[in-house]
Structures are given as C-alpha cells and as structure tokens.
Design brief:
Chains A, B: One of its GO terms (molecular function) is metal ion binding. The structure is a homodimer of 199-residue chains. The first copy, chain A, has a two-stranded antiparallel sheet. Chain A is mainly alpha-helical. The first copy, chain A, is globular, with a radius of gyration of 17 Å. The interface between A and B is large, with 49 and 49 residues.
Chain lengths: 199, 199
C-alpha cells in the first residue's frame, strides 16, 4: 500500500467516529437522536434534491462536498445544539477555535495537497460568504427544522423554543441562502407553534 | 408552498427512514450496527477522498450522487447482507425485482422530470456498466471490508467468512472498478484471515 493510500484510508477510518456523535434532533419516530454522519447524508441529499432553489453562482457538487465534510470537526468538538444556552453557545469564539483545531488535525491526516484542498472547502463553508457556502449552510439549518416538525416538535419541546426564537436563531440563517425556501418552511411549521402556544 | 417543493420535501422526509435500516456491519468499536444512511455518507466520502484511484471516464460528482441515492430502496426492501445464505441471497432475482419496485415508488415521490432523472442515476448504479457506476459500486463494496477489519473481524466472524469467500463475493466486484485499490486492501486485511485460520 502506498503512503498516500494509507493516509487516505486512515482519514476515512477516523471519519467513522462521526457516527457516534449525537445531535439534539431526534429521528421523526423519536426512537433515538440523529447522529452527525447520517445528518451529513441528509443535508447532502437536500443539496441534490433542492438544487432548483439555488441562486446564481451555486456549485451543487461543491455544496454536496461541503456538506459531506462540514461536521467532521465534531469528532473532536462534539455537536453544539443551536437552541442550547439560549442560542449563544453555538457561535461562541471558543467553539469556533476548537473547531479550527479539529479541522487542522482531521484534514491533516490526508496526503499533502488533498489536506489543504479539503480544509479550504471546509473553511469556505464556515466562512458562509460564497453563494455555494450560503446554499449549503441554509440546508444544514433547515433540515433539523423539518425533522423536528416531522417528529411532533422534537428538540423544540426540549429547549422550549418559540416561533420568534426559531426565526431569530435559524430562520434568518436559512433565509440568507434560500429566502423562498424559508418563507415556505416558515408557513409550513408555524401551525405547530401556534397550537402549542409558542407563537 | 408550491406542489413541486411539497413533493421534494415529501421525498426528503421519506428518505429519513433509511436511518432505521440496519446493516450486517458494525461500527469499528462494535457498539452497534451501521445503518444504511450513515453508510451512504461513508461511501460518498470514499468517492470524494479516493478520487485519484478512479479510472478514465469516471464522473466523481455523479458517483457521489449515485452513492447518496443507492440504498434508498432499502427503506422498502431492507438490507440484504452480502455474506448471508452463502452469498446467494444478495443478488437474487426476487430481491432485484423488489428493489426496482421500491425505486419506482420512492423516486416517484419527486416532481416529474426530477423523478426520472434520479431513477436513471439509480439504474446506472444498479447496471454497473459505466465507469462511474463501476467506481461507485467498488467503493460500496470495499467500505464494509475496511469497517470489518477496523472492528476486529466484525461480520466476518458472524458469517464465518474465509479469505477465499471474501475474494469471491467482494474482491472480484471491488477489483472490477478499482483493481489497484483491491490489491492493496486485500494485502491489508489478509493477515486477519491468516491469524484466524481462515486463509
């Protein structure tokens, strides 16, 4: 086996650990929490299926790549739920710094050249500036909303989330990349908040 | 919400069920079996990372799309382990027919046009003729081998698999798309079979 292949297989073996990182959101049947590996599959599938929602300048294949890679840092850092601690933990400087260290370690397992290439894609996603990153980030945010809705409230119940909080913590970010999609999803989920006295 | 978007979100919601389809292969730490959604993420990541192994005519983005979609039929049919019933169940005509019915139902949830497009990608994967399908199929076969090896034998123990059986049921299929990769993986895993008296 070449060194190059050994490094690539080493990275892929390390990536298996993402299957043991659990998120706040549960499966629709509430049987268990979703893990970050299967969440990554979901959002990559979203990027494929919802591609006609993408605006100009979005590279769908690159968005899918971003979404396959975006959560790998959680192998070291864990998932930080968006509704935890009133929404403040998720974007803290400490979490950001820990995720950057994790990205350096994980992508650093890959051969030279490929390591830098994959890190650049992850950084583009994190930066959230390019149309492709905005598209990918919007999908990453909207899938848990639909999952919670499909599961009768899911982590909205656990974290006592109101419709205004959803709008503020999640909606604004989805709308940045996919305004029409957020408009539609917003109307779709609002009745749940109304009927639970949270809107 | 437009009908088109409602259909797409309906498909994505149905796809969530793949997270509850469990495979024969366990995670490396043997804590639980792998499900087909996270397996799909793994093999899509393999397609991305191992792209320098791909031969001429392989479209990496299309291979990733294939691998995101390839197991959805298991929502209706379940996973048929490759080593079950001496390797004969996996490729039976009855399974193939059931999977084709499942593909028609599942992709049929999508809007017209997109349904046919996704079904065509799934059929290309199933056909295993194009360079892209051969690449994707080889990765789909090799990931469980590396997972079993990382997990100290995993489902090889359960199904009492010998090195010759691995070669015959799996190796031949991996080598069809990625001969050099199989050569390397074969040498990498052989010592396990030797040390367990199965080679």
């Amino acid at each position: 086996m070449t060194d190059r292949l050994a490094q690539q297989l080493g990275f892929l073996r390390e990536a298996e650990k993402l299957k043991s990182v659990y998120r706040a959101t549960a499966l629709p049947d509430q049987s268990r929490r979703e893990n970050s590996a299967e969440h990554s599959w979901s959002v990559a599938l979203y990027a494929l299926i919802l591609q006609d929602q993408a605006g100009e300048g979005v590279d769908i294949a690159r968005a899918i790549t971003m979404l396959l890679l975006h959560d790998l840092v959680e192998i070291d850092v864990g998932d930080v739920p968006i509704h935890a601690q009133g929404g403040s933990a998720h974007s803290s400087a400490a979490v950001k710094e820990a995720e950057e260290r994790a990205a350096a370690r994980l992508f650093g397992l890959l051969p030279e050249g490929q390591a830098e290439q994959m890190l650049a894609i992850w950084l583009e996603f994190e930066g959230g500036v390019t149309p492709t990153a905005l598209y990918a980030r919007a999908l990453d945010r909207v899938q848990p909303v639909l999952l919670n809705h499909a599961g009768g409230g899911g982590s909205w119940r656990e974290y006592d989330v109101s419709f205004d909080q959803l709008e503020e913590r999640v909606g604004v970010k989805v709308a940045r990349g996919l305004p029409a999609l957020w408009q539609a999803v917003r109307e779709h989920v609002k009745p749940w908040f109304v009927s639970h006295g949270k809107a």
